[in-house]
Write a structure and sequence with these properties.
binds 2-phosphoglycolic acid; alpha/beta; about 45% helix; TIM Barrel; about 15% strand; 11 helices; 8-stranded parallel beta barrel
Amino acid sequence: MREWIVAGNWKMHNNVAESIALAKAIREGLTAIKNGEVVIAPTFTALFSVGEIIKGSRISLAAQDMHYEDKGAFTGEISPAMLKDVGCIYVIIGHSERRKYFHEQDNDVNLKVKKALMIGLKPIVCVGETDEERVKGVTQSVVGRQLKEGLSGVEKIDNVVIAYEPVWAIGTGKVATPEQAQEVHFFIRGILKNLYGGSTADDIRVLYGGSVTKDNIGDLIAMKDIDGALVGGASLKVDSFLGIIKVISSKQ
Ligand code: PGA
């Protein structure tokens, strides 16, 4: 039985005081939830303070990105060890905004995934097709390539979480239908089965991301291969984020 995860990606929102307030409110709101895993990914500048707020709670801290080198002359970058130092458990890797605006390639994703695992961070590896790719009918070849190249050389994936985030659904309000999402999640699990064997693949959490709200998550989470959500916009308000968590937790 896979334990659900709801991860909030705060992107480039919230200063330190706002991040602390949101983290506190989430922590307080979660006291009634007894199952599953909740992850929050504030900006780098708020990681340490938010880490202090959620210490001892069921919330795990995540970073939104990292560099794959340990240290060195990489102005503006943050190393995996620095993330561990401030209490990160997870790190989002290969988000479509990183791929689109910062030209991250599958190879960068792969280097980051390998380094995260090596140092003991759990990567949330994002894959997903653009609108144009879906219309062209190449969703599976794009997602398959991102997954295989992103995981190339990764021998053990127990600590990896996959997030399927169709790019056309991110921040657009245009959520994938449960059937559309399930089709790709099933495809992803099939690739994981080929690469790692059935029982390992059956234990890997595959999250859906893209315009998730408390109103649409119920039908998505009812799908067999959807194990939770990576949430952007709706993770910035305590009520909408907790609303999503409550729907998922009540269905498990
Ligand atoms: P969204 O973002 O929920 O605002 O669509 C999802 C994401 O980018 O992870």
